[in-house]
Give the backbone structure.
Amino acid sequence: MPDPPRAGHGFQQYVLFALMCAAFLVACTSVPPGRSAVDSVNLKGNDAIDSDDLREKLATAASPRFLGIFAGIVYDYTVFDRFVLDRDLQRIERYYRARGYYQARARAGRVFFISPRKVKVEIVIDEGHPTLVDRIDFHGLEGLPKAAADEAKRSTQAVLSRKQVFEEQKFSEAEEALRNALANHGYAYVKVQRAADVDLPKNLVAVGYFVTLGPRARFGEVRISGLGEIPEAPVRRALAIVPGTPYSRRELDSAQRALLDLNVFSSVVIEPDVTQGGENQEQPLVPINVRVEPAKLRAIHVGGGVQVDSIQTDVHVLGGWENRNFLGGLRSLTFEVKPGVVLYPTRIPTLRAPERLLPEGRANAQFRQPGFLEARTGLFTRLDGSIAPVILAPDQTTGPILGYRDGRVTAGLDRSYWKLYGALSHTVQVDSAFTYAGRLDPDLHLITISYPEAFVTLDLRDSKVHPHLGGYFSTDWQIAGVGGDARDVRMQSEARGYLPITKRVTLAARGTVGLLFPSNYGDTLEAAANGADLSDERAHWVRDIQLMFLRGFFSGGSGSNRGYALREIGPHGIVPQASSTLAKACDPNMPSGDSSCDLPLGGFTLWEASLELRFPVKGDLSGALFTDTSDVSDRKLDFRFNRPHLSVGLGLRYDTPVGPIRLDTGYRVPGLQAPADAADEGVPAKTFGLPIAISFGIGEAF
């Protein structure tokens, strides 16, 4: 309780003190007389089922704590009730049976008084042996073609298979998978019944599915409801469901994805109407009901942010406007601007006061026309422009400062099919160097790059923001040389996987491979790696390094290897134009071990791998233990696994409406970085004198 105010403080202080006391008393709760509060609920003997899953089924729960510490403040105590505990023991046994443990018993509910008004509950569980699926029988598929029957069986057994623990939910999901597989072949009126014969002494179960196919159906009338101000014609075009064509559940799923890809609906539900007795017709027409909930067609976005790392600190604001029905026809038009300043030379860990403000900015505009050429293909065009400083070294504090202007024009086509997305486009990119302060190197010239690009993703995750189960795969191919200064082939592919350890704990993994094959640049990088003196061909050297900065691979940073700062992993060496961007001139004959000349060059071969264990902490706060490893080589097709650059670390995430805010600290493991005689390795920056890097961002690392 706060101390009372001293005499003479005046009436206002007494009023404030009274309000504080009242708030404290209102916030406090108490246990009813003669009753006890539940301090904790512990489970013992539950090896097969996670404790968190079981606690969600119980009415007896630990008293909630304010700020995770104080019980009885703000939140009411949970009052212990013996009869409620008895019912909880029955709930546990029922839940175990649903999970395939028919012999499980909640043997005891023990209550310990840890104070006169507070108890600790301990529940002891004897799980017994699981009941396994011994066989799966299908009845009623005899009239199907063999390919269709085999597909139906495979779909069912992908959910529930032999020797698997028999779970009621999987039993039901397998029935739905069987029904959908048959619906893909036109059987909209299929009926499926399931049965299970449990042999308790042997802990085995025989599963049977009994199928009544009904007639093969065709699509009937398509009814759309909930459109509001959204025009109906482009919606029907995206649906692409033609009455009279063979019925398919898969086609309905594709139609739902096509409507969501229009980005004008917050929800889409497509249901066949099989309640009108069509099973008695020879070729029934199935009416399709489409219910949509429109999203806002026009919006203005405003925001801002701060980024702090070992390279630079920037402060920026963000503004945008979008119209998802521009000129009708569900055409979308968006604009976004992101002006900001870099506080130079403020950075982690010194956090020096800024001496100069370096303006930076990014702007883009995008237009998309749905239903181009065919119902579900979109045409898009995009304009991007940016201006930003390029700070090459963490210790750069004085001298001229280099910047780049970047402009890009992109046009292409994209399409989704199920969970597969593909885009084919062409981009023309123009970059020019300038200086915020000091003299621009005379060998830095305008660079133009023109390349077609193919980008494909397969998203099998259960959630895009908080993935817990599934996988994600992407590949990006670019071929530069349709005009411009660069001729190359560039490929980067990534795979991510998510495995639930418990209901709230996730094991996530990521692997990335990148390959670059240039035909008219990059030779000076390989020559420099072999110790060649390139001072006599400086202009060619500068051009090579410019193109490598735009096309080459780098590693390190918050979305890469979190034990390193941005671009710290990869070939390092002399950058000839750095004589105009660093206070200390770089002599081409100077040993590359000089840190002022060990600058990132970019590489031809990239590999990265990450493993992360994500777990809850309290409320919206969660944590992660991670391991990152990666390398970038200065040679083509050169995977150097003897340079793992291994880092381990701890991260915190706080969930917000725009995604988790993420703070990661990575530690570079001694002896697991690169060979001691690797001359092209850079000298990574230390934070607070330790071999660590701190990264901050929004959204998971992968």
